[in-house]
Amino acid sequence: MTNLSTKSSPLATKSKREPIARGLEFLVRARDAEGWWRDFETLAGESDEWVSAFAAWAIAPLPEGRRLAEDTFGLLAFRERDEGWGYRAGVPADCDSTAWVCRLAARLGRSCEPGVAALRRSRRENGGMPTYRAAGPIRRFTGLPHTMPFHGWTSPHVCVSANALAVLSGDAALRRFVENAREPDGGWSGYWWPDRAYPTWLAATALGWDARAWAEACPESSAFSLACRVAVGAESAVEPLLALQADDGGWPASARLRIPAPGAIDPAGALESLDRNRVYTTAMALGALRGTL
User: Fold this and answer.
1) Average pLDDT for residues 267-286, to the nearest whole number?
2) Which of 35, 52, 113, 128 is the most buried (most CB within 10 A)?
């Protein structure tokens, strides 16, 4: 496979400096009084840990974003649990949220060994990474009976595995799992995401593979999908993404989180939640336009 180049500078030209600055100002205003970014309203409430870790990771390479990322990591470090981090305070740790905190730590030059160890303990025999290592904690949190299966949420997921691979880059079995999940058209599909641009970005960048042809041909045109396509290298998506920036500096809510039933292996048709606070989409757009993802 051709290696994915991350040195492409058309994504970081002068014409993008003002949109990036305005987007960062939007994210500064979007934090709550405690300093958290929150998004995606679900039955568990809005996410703070997962969303904040992702947003901080996306903007950490920006000179103006470094302080915000450092502040966010301090909040997350204070909340560390034995098994890592979760969707929000009080929700059991999951592998995806933990991976984002570990990735943020790496960008800041900080240690995140407990989180890395939790990910290593969670990998399945087939090499894949589940969202939840075990059903017990999340079952107790949801209050669902023991008759309710949780094998959907505890099975390996491509999107979570690709994110974890960015942390456990030397894990050969995990790498094979992500490699083998690539579909004939050159992209990947996720469990928690109905659109394919996000899991494709996660997988291609973790593997170092070139998925630009897929990203150029992808018909997904929401702001979030455009940002993911730009991050993969689709230069044709840059101008449409810039055109969608709102007057307040943010991008339209368009990251669609899919929420399957805990026992669902096939997530098709599940309920969805938008990032109505526009944090996830805006952070993705900033990192993609700056060429730092």
Assistant:
1) 97
2) 52
